[in-house]
Amino acid sequence: MGKHILNSPKTAILDSLSGLAFLNPSTEVYDTTLLLRSPSHDRVHIVCGGGGGHEPAHAAFVGEGMLSAAVSGQVFASPNAGQVEKAIGKLSLSKGVLLVVKNYTGDVLQFGLAKERWSATHLEDDSVRMVIVGDDVSVPRSQGALTGRRGLTGTVLVYKLAGALAAQGASLDEVEFVAKMVAERCGTIGMGLEHCHVPGTEKGEAYLKDDEAEIGMGIHNEPGIRKVSPIPTASKLVDEFLTTLTSTDSDPERSYLPFKNDGQDEVILVVNNLGGLPELELGVVVKEAAEWLANKRITVRRAVAGSFMTSLNLPGFSLTLLLLPRSPLTPPPSTSSSLSLDTPLLLDLFDAPTQAPAWKWTFRGEPEMRVIKEGEVEKVGKREEKVGEEVKGPKPADPKLFLAALEAALKSVIAAEPEITRYDTIAGDGDAGLTLKAGAEGIMHAISQNKIPSDDVVAAMVACSAVVEKEMGGTSGGLYAIGLSGLSKGLLDAAKEKGSETATPEVWARGLELALNTLYRYTRARPPSRTLVDPLSSFILTFSSSPTSPTALSHAIAAAHEAAEATRDLDAKAGRAAYVDQEKIREASVPDAGAWGVWKLLEGVQKAVDRASKE
C-alpha cells in the first residue's frame, strides 16, 4: 500500500515521537530521541536506536523496566553519532549506559562512533558499553560470514530482559552479560507477502506476484533468501521456520542455536507482526507454532505475540526463539559479577512489570492451548440435544422432491458465491457470499450425514436452523436461523390449524407467513429496504395469495427475482449498506447481496421442480 496519513515524510518521525510522548508522560522528546524525563542515577540505563519505520521499536519500549532512551533516525536510516552522544550525556550520571543496537552497518558505525567519542573524552570511564544483536538465521553461515547475522525481533527480548535486570539495580557488568547471553541464544526468521512502502517515495510495481511469498526477509525491504509460489500454508511456513531455528549440528549452515532436540529444550517464543498482517492471521501462526513445538517436545516457558519490530506496513511475520540455558551461565572471571544466569532468572525478568507502552500483556506462566473438540464435552448437567426428534411435524407431500429442492437451492447459492461477494464488496462488508456459502455447505454436509430428515419438514427446518446458526454467524446467519426456526414452528402450527399430517401448499403458505412475522420481530427492515427481506416477503406474499394454484410456486419465485433485481435502484434503509455512500451504490447499480442470495436459493428450488416435472 502506497497511501499514508502524515503531515510530511520529513517530519513523520518527530511527529510520531511527539504523539508517543503525549501518551507516555514519563518520557520526553529530545532531538528525535525519546527518553525518560527523570532517569534514576543509581541504576544502569539502556539506550537503543536505529532507523524509524520499525514502530513500536524502538521508542515505544522506553519506560521503567525496559529502555531509558531510544534514538531514532529517519525511516530505515540510522541516527547520527551526535544524536547518540546527546542521549548518553543525558544519562551519564548513573551506574553506566549500555548501548543495544541491531547488527546493521549504519547503526553499528554511528553508535560505535558515539561510544568511542565518549571514551576518548572520558579516559578513565568505562561506563558506556555496546552490545550488538544479530539473531537472523535465514542467511547461511558461509554467506553472512563477514557481516554477521542481521538484528531482528530478538533485539526486543534483549531490551526486556536486560532492562528488567537494570531496573533491579544490577551492575553494568551484569546487565551487559545478560544482554550478550540473550542475544547469542536468540534466533529469528521471517517472511513477507510484499515489500513495504516508504513514505515520500514513489509507489513502484508489486515486488511479488499475487501467488508469491518471500522467505527470510529483513526489516528494511531487503530481498529474502528465496521466493516461493504458491504461497505456503501457515502450517508449512511455521514448520520450515521452526525447523531452521532448531536445527542441530547436522546442519552447520543453520545451527546457530545449541538445540539438543532431546525433549528437554525450553524456549521463549515471540510471534512478531511485521506491520501489515491481520491479527486473525497472526493468531493462526501462533496456533501452528504452539502445536509444532509441542509435537517436537520443546517446552514453551513463555510466549508473546504482536507487533514488536515492524517494517512499516509489510504484510508478514517472524518467529523468534530464545533457547533457555539448561545450566547456569556465569560472567567471565574478568568481571566482578557473581551473577548466575539461569532459566528461573530469565523467566522472572520476562515476567517483570514494565511501563513501556509497547510491551504486550503476557500470561505469567507456561502457555497452554486447549481446544475442546466436538464430542469431548462432558454431558453431566447438560441437556442432550435431540434436534428433529422431540416434535413430529407434517411430512412433505413428496419427500424425494423436498430433499432434491433443498439440495438444489444450496448448490445454487454455493455456485453464486463469487457474484454475491462482489456485490457485497461494493455495497457492504464483503462477507455475504462466503457466509451464505458456509451455511449452505454446512447443510449439505449434514444431508450427507443423514442429519436432515426428509420425512418431517419441521424436523428438517429445525436441523437446518441449528447448522446455519453454527456455520454462518453474523447478521445474515442470525436472520436465516431465526427465519428457519420461525418456519419450523409456523409449519407445525399451520398443520394443526389445517388438521393435516402432510405439508400441503396451504400448510407451507401459512407456515411461511408465520415465519415472516417471526423474522419481523427481530429486524426493522420492511420492503422495499434493499435487504434480503425484499425478495423473501415478495415470495411469501405472492405464494400465500393462491397456494393451490399450479403456478403459485413459479409466480412467487419470479416475484422474488423481480424484487431482488429492484434493489439495484433502491437506497438502503437497513443493513450494513445503509452506512455506505448511497451515490456510490447507485453508480455501481448492483443488487443487494443478501437479496440476491435469497433469489439464488429460490432459483435452485425452481430448477429442481422443473427437473422433476420433466421426469
From TrEMBL:
The active site is at H220. The keyword Cell membrane does not apply. Residues 400-607 form the DhaL domain. One of its GO terms (molecular function) is glycerone kinase activity. One of its GO terms (cellular component) is cytosol. Pfam families: Dak1, Dak2. It catalyses: D-glyceraldehyde + ATP = D-glyceraldehyde 3-phosphate + ADP + H(+); dihydroxyacetone + ATP = dihydroxyacetone phosphate + ADP + H(+). Residues 8-359 form the DhaK domain. InterPro entries: DhaK_ATP, DhaK_dom, DhaL_dom, DhaL_dom_sf, Dihydroxyacetone_Kinase. The keyword ATP-binding applies. Pathway: Polyol metabolism; glycerol fermentation; glycerone phosphate from glycerol (oxidative route): step 2/2. Substrate binds at G51, G52, G53, H54, K102, D107. Keywords: ATP-binding, Glycerol metabolism, Kinase, Nucleotide-binding, Transferase. One of its GO terms (biological process) is anaerobic glycerol catabolic process. PANTHER family: DIHYDROXYACETONE KINASE 1, TRIOKINASE/FMN CYCLASE. Catalyzes both the phosphorylation of dihydroxyacetone and of glyceraldehyde. Belongs to the dihydroxyacetone kinase (DAK) family. This is BY PROTMAP: gi|472586991|gb|EMS24490.1| glycerone kinase [Rhodosporidium toruloides NP11] gi|647394824|emb|CDR36058.1| RHTO0S01e13278g1_1 [Rhodosporidium toruloides]. It comes from Rhodotorula toruloides.
